[in-house]
Amino acid sequence: MALEHVGPDVTAFKTALGTFASSVNVITMWDEEDRPVGMTATAFASVSTDPLLVLICVNRSTRTYLHIATGGAFAVNILGSDAREVSDYCARPGLDKYLREEWLAPRPGWRSPALAGALAYLDCEVEQDVHAGTHAILIGRVISIGLNSDAAEPLPLLHYRGAYRQLQILDVRPRPLPLPIVTEDLT
Asked: Does residue 12 fall inside a structural domain?
């Protein structure tokens, strides 16, 4: 395998980033009329454990950014492999993606909507809004966490080279230690 030098253009940039396997997440928030909305995103990362901080990247020209900037809060719902329908719905360009009631978890004091089938949920308040090119890097302070208690939870939903992927569990067993070789002087 060899790397080929290519110019720093948008196509090469997107191709390069497509080789980065990432989790599929739905960022949720309330719109100005208190309706739950969501956006599919792979631009999510942990930032700090003291304090608990995460970041998401959102295009500043979208309604999603406007909802988060106005409300000051968002949540990251990390999706399992059985949540492709939710991901596809929230990935549609150009429209507000009002979340279906059956997708939502009960609201036990969480600030942002939670998806019932998420593997994990991070409820965040916007701590910083950093403008970078066309996007905003939104750093959120995690104020509440939800974990999936289902013992049979699905594997995570992943995105790689423009398509959904799933983990394949490998049966990796430790290699046996080599047998000791004893050399004796037989004379």
From this structure: no
Indicate the helix (H) or strand (E) that contains 55. strand 52-59
Domain tally for the chain?
A: 1
Residue 174 placed within a domain: no
Helix H or strand E segment including 65: helix 63-71
In a domain, 184, yes or no: no
Per the listing, tokens 């208690």 go with 149
Range of the domain at 97: 21-166
Closest CA to 62 of 90, 22, 100, 20: 90
Tens digit of each residue's pLDDT (9 = 90 or more) over 77-115: 999 988 999 999 999 987 778 999 999 998 778 999 999
Going by the DSSP 8-state scheme, the letter that residue 171 receives in this structure is -
Structure tokens at 125: 């308040």
**Contact predicate 28/114, CB 8 Å:** yes
Rounded Cα gap, residues 29 and 76, in angstroms: 9
All residue ranges of the chain with pLDDT < 70 are: 151-153, 181-187
The tokens for 29 are 């928030």
